[in-house]
Amino acid sequence: MDVSGFKESSAEMEMNYNRKEELKAFDDSKAGVKGLNDAGVAKVPKIFFRPPDELAEEFGSYKANVQVPVIDLRSIGGSDGREKVANEVRIASKEWGFFQVVNHGIPLNVLEEMIHGVRTFHEQDPEVKKSWYTRDLTKRVRYGSNLDLYASKSANWRDTLNISMLVSDKLDPDEIPIACRAATIKYMKYVTDLGTTLFELLSEALGLKHDHLNTLECGKGRTLVCNYYPACPEPELTLGISKHSDPVFLTVLLQDQLGGLQVMFNNQWVDVPPISGGLVVNIGDLLQIISNDKFKSVAHRVLANLAGPRISVACFFNGVVVPPKLYGPIKELISEESPPIFKDFVVSDYREKFFSKAFDNSGPNDFKL
């Protein structure tokens, strides 16, 4: 399908609009949102329109003038410094569910090469890129647009390259697209080590032994999600990513300097401005469950933007998926005064429930007792 077919006037679109057909046409093009961008669309196609009630709610809202916590990891080598950092992690994870980290040990050039590699993949010859396009979630490496395309109320202005190590931590380098292969291999090594450190700090922040969450293998089952947000001609009508929480234990996000990420805090949207060399960390649904609500997995989203592209790379730590492993509220955090709030689960069941519906309906409440 020629994506230029999306170029129609508002009147024509309203008259001829068949959502199911438009979704299929977009999907069948395998060109993603960047394909629309390359075709020079001046109007956002209707499949991307946010619902009227959502837009009305947005019009009456305002952003809170507060800042997401920024935590410096430089001093975690000493006992006093580590205790201070663990306490900052505890407060941020309890009150925000989000924080940024600096001096985390990943060199700036490694971060920049990863961003460049993702951009190179998404901006390569479309015919080459199409060979990676699929909706088959069993594929370890796949390119696509809008995983919840057919379930959501509106499509998002974003394309994604997904590199999955859910089943096995071993990934043949030849499976990774050549455009970002070297950068991905190097970045994954560093971000995996950082994940181990963060789970240690999170364990200490919960009052547990430093190796508790790593012993539970919360850092296993990594997935790298490489997002590309093209410039949008009418950013007020759509979103880069709809409101959602993450169906994982922990997310470490690398973002470029364009901005657009927002987190929900006290029922208001707060910007998460990029910090040069910094990384965003957020608590996932699964960590909220096993911490028995001590830590919070909160809603976040990404705005569309007239400028672009925006590039981000999320490393999701999913835990053990295969063979099935039972997780639940940590017994050391349970007492008569603090009984279990959530039921036990296996990661595959949680993921299946998450991906069976629109992302904006996500969250751990379905697993409450």
Strands, helices and their partners?
Layout: H1 10-16, H2 19-29, H3 32-38, H4 52-59, E1 70-72, H5 79-95, E2 98-102, H6 108-122, H7 126-130, E3 141-144, E4 159-165, H8 181-205, H9 212-215, E5 222-229, E6 239-244, E7 250-255, E8 261-265, E9 268-271, E10 279-283, H10 285-290, E11 300-303, E12 310-317, E13 326-327, E14 345-346, H11 347-355
Parallel strand pairs: 1-2
Antiparallel strand pairs: 2-10, 3-4, 4-5, 5-12, 6-11, 7-10, 7-12, 8-9, 8-11, 13-14
Helix pairs in contact: 5-8, 6-8
Walk me through this protein's architecture.
This protein has helices at residues 10-16, 19-29, 32-38, 52-59, 79-95, 108-122, 126-130, 181-205, 212-215, 285-290, 347-355; strands at residues 70-72, 98-102, 141-144, 159-165, 222-229, 239-244, 250-255, 261-265, 268-271, 279-283, 300-303, 310-317, 326-327, 345-346. It has 369 residues and is an alpha+beta fold. The strands form three sheets. It has an eight-stranded mixed sheet with strand order 1-2-10-7-12-5-4-3. A four-stranded antiparallel sheet has the order 6-11-8-9, with no helix packed on it. Strands 13-14 form a two-stranded antiparallel ribbon. β8 and β9 (268-271) form a beta hairpin. α5 (79-95) crosses α8 and α6 (108-122) packs across α8 (181-205). The longest helix is centred in the middle third of the chain and has 25 residues, at 181-205. It is globular, with a radius of gyration of 20 Å. The termini are far apart. 43% of the residues are buried. Residues 1-13 have low confidence and may be disordered.
